[in-house]
Amino acid sequence: MGLTRSESLFRWVWEANRGNPVRENATLTFGSDGNLVLADVDGRIAWQTNTANKGVTGFKVLPNGNMVLHDSKGNFIWQSFDYPTDTLLAGQSLRLGGATKLVSRASAMNNSDGPYSLVMESKALVLYYKASNTPRPILYFNHEFWVNVRKGPLEYVKFNSTSEDDEGTAYGLNLEYQVANSSTGGTLRIGRPNYNNTLSFLRLGMDGNLKVYTYYDPVFDSAWEVTFTLFSRDSFWGSECQLPERCGKFGLCEDSQCVACPSPNGLLGWSKDCDVKKLSSCNEKDFNYYKLNGVDHFMTTYTRGNAIKQDECGNKCTKDCKCMGYFYNQETSRCWMAYDLKALTRVANSTHVAYIKAPKYDKAGISFFLKKKH
Question: How far apart are CA 193 and CA 170, in angstroms?
Answer without folding.
Answer: 7
